[in-house]
Amino acid sequence: MTRKDTNVIGRREELSLLRELIAPPHKESHVLLLLGDPGLGKTVLLAEAAREAQAAGMRVLATTGTESEKDLAFAGLHQLLRPVLDRVARLPTRQAEALRGAFGLSDAPAPPDALLTGIAVLTLLSELSDEQPLLVAADDAQWLDRASLDALAFAARRLESEQLVLLVGARGNVPPAGFERDLPQLLLRPLTRSDAGLLLDALPRPPHGRLREQVLAQAVGNPLALIELARVIATDPDAGRRWTAEPLPLTGQLTALMAAQYITLPSAARSALLLAAAVDSPDLTTAVPGLSADALAPAEAAGLIRLDTPGPRFAHPLTRSAVYHAVPFAERAAAHRQVADALRDQPDRHAWHLAAAALEPDEHLAALLEDSAAQAQRRGGAAAAARALERAAELSPGEPDKARRLLAAAELALPAGQADWVRELAGRVLTLTSDPDLRIAARLDIGWSLLWSNRNADAFDTLLSVAAEASPRLPAIAWQAAWMSATVAHQTGLPELCAKARAALDVLDSQDGPPPSAEDWPAGRADEYRIWIRACTDPFGERADTVPRLRRTAGGSLSDPGTLGAAAWVLDETELAVRVLREALSRLRAPGVRGASGGVLSALEWACVDSGRWDDALAAAREAGDIAAAYKMETVAGSADLTTAIVAAMRGEHDQLAPLLARVRAAVDTSEYRGFAARIWQTAGLAALAQGNYVTAYAQLSQLFAADGTPLHHHFSYLAVADLAAAAVRAERRLEARTLLERALARLDPAPGPRLEQLTARARGLLAEPDSAEAHFAAPLADPTGDTWPFERAQLQLDYGEWLRRQRRINDAKPILVTALETFRRLGAAPWTRRAESELRACGVTVQAPQGAPGAPGALDGLTAQQREIVILAGHGLTNGEIADRLFLSPRTVASHLYRSYPKLGIAGRRQLRDIIDQQITPRVDR
Known about the structure:
Radius of gyration: 32 Å
Strand content: under 5%
Low-confidence stretches: 1-6, 852-857, 921-927
Strand order of the largest sheet: 2-3-4-1-5
Shape: globular
Largest sheet: 5 strands, parallel
Distance between the termini: 62 Å
Mean pLDDT: 87
Structural class: mainly alpha
């Protein structure tokens, strides 16, 4: 039996699964994570998959994570794509620039942009798979640098119809960062006893009798352990007794055995092998003297290393660890200094190897690492930059530099999405320094990290204390902390938090004079933050002052249009919100600042939902989801899923709801984020209402208020009052609902704004006695402002039309119902469309169903949200590549969606799309 056959004994099911994935025909993409403890055979399975893929005519790209390069930004991705780097030039310009910048291959790199880098990787892999089926294999992913993992995970979640298989192997039972959710996993288990016996029998010198039983007992089904323990016991039969007397964990046993083999090598071989362990990258061995094949030959003969192209590879990662730790620190340090000296032309690696050799503080070395961090940051490797600064801080002789570098590391760890690490780094700043400015900045970072960790209560207290302490001396930080605390208050919806955030604003407003103008505090920023804090803490109150202030500010030059646009959305200045948020988004789509667009997109999604731009809302939600994946923003992802869910509920696409709402609940703690809880109840209730499940709808919507009228959320709960009333009437809970809503509405300002006044009027009209309902229905219809929210307006018209019909005022009912029907059809709100049609038929009107011909109203309704978005962009003349670049998809996926859309639209091809789109009300397209 060959060594290859020996290595795959006991893995028949796993090999069968891998062969199914790589066997032709390759009609769709596949992603699989191989997980398991060290030595279970992940590397062997990946190698076998690569061998069979090549035999089947697939191109193979591979990368292997190494412990020494886990802090070098994009090192793993560069290793993976190095054979095809010549293809980068064919990518769309901004994608090519992003990828070259990530790899440090550009003299003038573009600003770092994780999203652009991810889409560049996706596009490159997709184009390669168009030419030839492609296998991408990433081994030891637990040691891949975070930037490479993020780019691969981004691509993995967007693969659809590519002829591509992505296999990722990682140590342990938990997927590597970025791959945690919704991807198939194969968890390797220990071999059965019978398979373990077969593996032993296949070895050159298999143990027998008592020795065999000892090996089987100690190895517990781990293939690497079986091989290594059998090798040792063949030359030293007494080893089994020592294993019994001195038990170690399995990995400890294996490391000890390998270290013992290393110690027996000749001195020159030991030196060369230690040097290889320090280098920890076959690609670099030619640059480091002392790693010749002759010097390493004894190590190869001992089975510790393999000599092949491109250089020596350790037989297993545990072997490298065993060799590295088998010698004193002084010898390891000498090896790292030798490597560093050979890699002076690679500043990052040079600095890290010198750092690995350092025990004492060294300002020169700390400065080198700080320079390395700056390089990593310019290339988009925030996590690598933060780690370099953390190590630089450890090597800083003076406390001021140590604290400064730790704080800089914390601020870089924030966009890397590692909130716990941020708190640790900022906490160390607090223990190191008494400098008040550094301490305030560190506490602000801690507040951010708590917010990112879904710990709203702790975040709020921290931010509020920062605002209070900073306000006299550091007003810019005080305003920023107050702005963030108001954001927390809005997310929680708790009245006591809103009151405290508003009190913080009052303190800031009482300070003498405006904040000083500076680069980090543009003119007008305080006004924008003031409006945001007011909107968050009391969205329905003091509108006579806040709304005019909002409009005046929006008419000037804005330093932060995202904040002001979000305030306009909260204050139901919906058209203004859409305009300002789109302006903000146009600024934030530039490379290097795209991560800041997540919150803007979240507000824009809901402003588009409110204003009837549902396809725009879905487009914004999709982009927000991509931003969230690239920059680790769980609340942004949750908001995107909720937006998609509520549009699905209103359009009657109920099969989408359960998985979307489940994802939101998994991503966000709804006990902390009561705004999310309120939106979930609203969406679920709306869906039940659309399906005619009125008792269920009332049960869900009534969760938005306590029995005494206290809202679950001070803002979002009130947006569902009309739907709650509609469900109550049909569930025969009219009296109960009337009492509940009057108690809730009594808590509001007498003039809560035209939107809530329209919703409240509809609710009261539904719950009123028949002879008093008309006044409630008719009053808001006299105000044209209500047309700003077309779905809510059409619901009001539908209910009023139904009431008129039941009062036998047929001629009055008809025009109102026709207007409602036109709106529902335009929006694609199928459940309400059917109800409006039914009401009109009851009025004796013959309702013509929309035709299925191209361009007829509702022609896009049969498409999925993503297909609809692609069709609209294609209809406006964008190419597949441009659409892919806009939507963060691969061109092949775009082509596949278009191909599947044509039959649904009743057309033959792309040239007919413009005619369809011109007859639909579609989102504005910016080329």
